[in-house]
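I hope you will forgive my troubling you with a question about protein structure. I should value your view on which stretches of the chain appear to form regular backbone elements. Here, with my thanks, is the record as I have it:
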Amino acid sequence: MITAEKIDWSLRWKQEGLEAGREEGREEGRKEGRREGLQEGKARLLEQQLVRRFGPLPLAVRERLAGASDGELDSWALNVLDAANLEAVFRG
């Protein structure tokens, strides 16, 4: 026979589990937001460096920067230091 106390405990555990799940979801959302923000910041900074070095950027280059992975942005940011032209930034 199920007692009122057992039902109460069951409901409490369920509620605690839901709260823990919500908090975990919020934390994961914050982490993802920080990652996305950092990546967008890298792309924006690299775009500014490219404009300063090579002048106005073609739309295709701006789109490429916006869709780039974190690793690509890091690689291109290093390449911009030695590249003779815009195309050289995106090689290798």
User: Anything to note?
Assistant: Residues 4-89 form one domain. DSSP finds four helices and no strands in the chain. The mean pLDDT is 89.
